[in-house]
Amino acid sequence: MRSDLEAYLASYADPRWLTIGPGVNGDTHPDSVRTYLGDGRGVAWAPPNPDGLTLAVDAELASQRVSPRLARCARSDDPAVVWPRWTACEAAAKVLDLPVLSWLHWPSLEVPAAIAERVVLRHVEFDGIQLCFGVRAD
Length: 138
Fold this sequence. Notes:
three-stranded antiparallel β-sheet
């Protein structure tokens, strides 16, 4: 099953399935999973979604500054290190319906093995945005 989920993300974790802009929200893109960037734009991911899958996306501006507090959590202030970790934690938490506070304490903001084995994640950088797509079988 994991290989099927990896194949799904290989096909659909792609910018052509995204809408990014200030007007993206639940009303304008009700059949998508969404996230929001620090600059106020929304990101909607709307791939074909067969029954039995839970999808998630998270995104951050790839070059945005890392706050000192977040740098301490991630043990790095490098956006190229922190934002992929952050988006992976967020996408994993979304597909597993975990509260935000549960993953903010994961060591170095890395997805723990027990969580990682339950989800499949794929990173893509597009147009200055670090994205992480997540999927799990229900």
